[in-house]
């Protein structure tokens, strides 16, 4: 059974830090690009970061660049999102995504159930 299980969310004050984890099982983790996507209250999904299969390349949305860092640990089949200098607008549900290209025109992806982050004083 494929599973992506996020953890590490919670309540934090502005300026604080959190580290989210995404534990993967049931598929070959090292073959998948991992991403974090969030959804703020009342808004749509926002992609915020990705990391390639071997971690050689990362990318970030402008809204989090310089504050968030995505990493992965192949030995633990886990992806992480280190979030520093948190702002109230970072509040939302954070989802982990695993993506692989299955052909030139198709992909396969998995989603976690999400973990809530609430930034407030």
Summarize the helices and strands and which ones pair or pack.
Elements: E1 3-7, E2 10-12, E3 18-25, E4 33-39, E5 45-51, E6 58-60, E7 68-73, E8 78-83, E9 92-101, E10 107-111, E11 115-119
Parallel strand pairs: 2-11
Antiparallel strand pairs: 1-3, 3-8, 4-5, 4-9, 5-6, 7-8, 9-10, 9-11
Question: How many beta strands in the DSSP annotation?
Answer: 11
Main sheet record:
7 strands, mixed
Number of helices: 0
> How widely separated are the two ends?
40 Å
Question: Strand content of the residues, in percent?
Answer: over 45%
Q: What is the percent of helical residues?
A: under 10%
Order of helices and strands: EEEEEEEEEEE
> What is the SS-derived class?
mainly beta
Identify low-pLDDT runs. Answer: none
Radius of gyration: 14 Å
The backbone outline, from C-alpha atoms, is globular
Instruction: Name the average pLDDT.
Output: 96
